[in-house]
Amino acid sequence: xxxxxxxxxxxxxxxxxxxxxxxxxxxxxxxxxxxxxxxxxxxxxxxxxxxxxxxxxxxxxxxxxxxxxxxxxxxxxxxxxxxxxxxxxxxxxxxxxxxxxxxxxxxxxxx
Length: 111
Prior knowledge:
- By secondary structure, the chain is mostly helical.
- It is built from 7 helices and no strands.
- It has helices spanning 4-15, 27-30, 32-35, 47-59, 64-77, 81-90, 100-109.
- The radius of gyration is 26 Å and the shape is elongated.
- It starts with a helix and ends with a helix.
């Protein structure tokens, strides 16, 4: 069974930090957030979805957790439609030197 307290102590010991409870040195509490990442838990995932994601992770030679972390990072870096629209509103309009209708007609005539 996983014991988070033992895990944190092992990491702190490896980094050479003072152990919690070994005096008044609170230095280890200042770096605790660097050692532990934020956790996201998703409940009620349907079995077929879980199996499909697990298969995709295995195909890439990754753990399910690693695969999902990569997918979440990709999703977080992708702009939402609202963000894209807001970004487009900050740009100045483009006025082409050749009318768009002429460009479309020339493209269709070349086929």
